Amino acid sequence: MASNPTPEFRAEAVRFALTSGLPRKQVAADFGVGFSTLSRWIQQDRRNPEKPSAQSDLEREVAELRKENRMLREEREVLKKATQFFAERSK
């Protein structure tokens, strides 16, 4: 890796380290940087208040998915009750 990586390269390495589920040592090796360098980039990314971190993006997505899941469960319950109601009326 070049001695001065681009901001895009750093951001991609950080994003991959936080979201891939792979050990950070492996991610660092895959990107051709040292483990301590990757760790420092992650710390700097977490301290940067200007841009949302990958972790906050994931937390926001999880919250949205939980809300959607809750709504779908409620809709399913309504449909179950309606099915039971009409099944009993048709007898």
Automatic annotation (TrEMBL):
One of its GO terms (biological process) is DNA transposition. Keywords: Coiled coil. This is Transposase. GO terms for molecular function: DNA binding; transposase activity. It comes from the Bacteria. PANTHER family: PROTEIN DISTAL ANTENNA. Transmembrane segments: none annotated. Pfam families: HTH_Tnp_1. Residues 55-82 form a coiled coil. Gene3D superfamilies: Homeodomain-like.
